[in-house]
Specification:
Layout lengths: L6 E5 L4 H15 L4 E7 L9 H15 L3 E7 L8 H14 L3 E5 L6 H16 L16 E5 L11 E4 L4 H9 L2 H4 L16 H15 L5 E5 L18
Parallel strand pairs: 1-2, 1-4, 2-3, 4-5
Antiparallel strand pairs: 5-7, 6-7
Length: about 240
Amino acid sequence: MMKPLDVLAVMAHPDDAEIFCGGALIKSAEAGERTGVLDLTAGEAGSQGTVETRAREASEAAAVMGLADRRCAGLADSGLLNDQASRIVVAAMIRTLRPQVVVTHWTEGRHPDHRAAAWLARDASFLAGLKKFPAPGSPHRPDKIVYALAFREDPVKPTFVVDITDQMERKLEALAAYGSQFRGKSGIGEVYPGGDRPLFDQLRSVHVTYGSMIRRGYGEPYWTEETVEATSLGTLSVSSF
């Protein structure tokens, strides 16, 4: 049995993990945590690039981020569903990778695959812990589901923001591996175009905004259904003034 992962990003397409939670994954890896990405699809329905190109780019980005594992579930791009067959596939991979924390998309989004991925990741994580659920492998249920909020326009306040100031350049380096997807673009997916401003400038501006919420240079926002514990009032971070 392979050594369990600490953090697993379950995302719809190759490059989604880099966009939505790449900085936090890099920071976890730098801290010695075993990190991984499960791309639910190979991105075969994308307007640019081939399956082979995107797989090569994903591998290059994984090396930049220091991932311990990256694999593809092989589900249908542009047809991702939270159905029983898909839950069995994802639950089997969760049982294999045995992550403590699963990070996925926010439950709303422009791309229907992103919305489906959020619910599929959550439901498969729960079902993977049921002894009689018909997926290969021994039961395992992650301790926590975390939703990535970056680039959302609906007014959801983050539960927490990860300081990625020291990881921002590596995040952009990982994204730069996806030349077939990002070269010459000012927007992609949930990242809306900002006139002629280059895509990476768009990314920086969003992360600067979230960084300012925690009084740091760059930040990535996340949301959890459960309230996050604070050790004591005397150790709360981020000044009110």
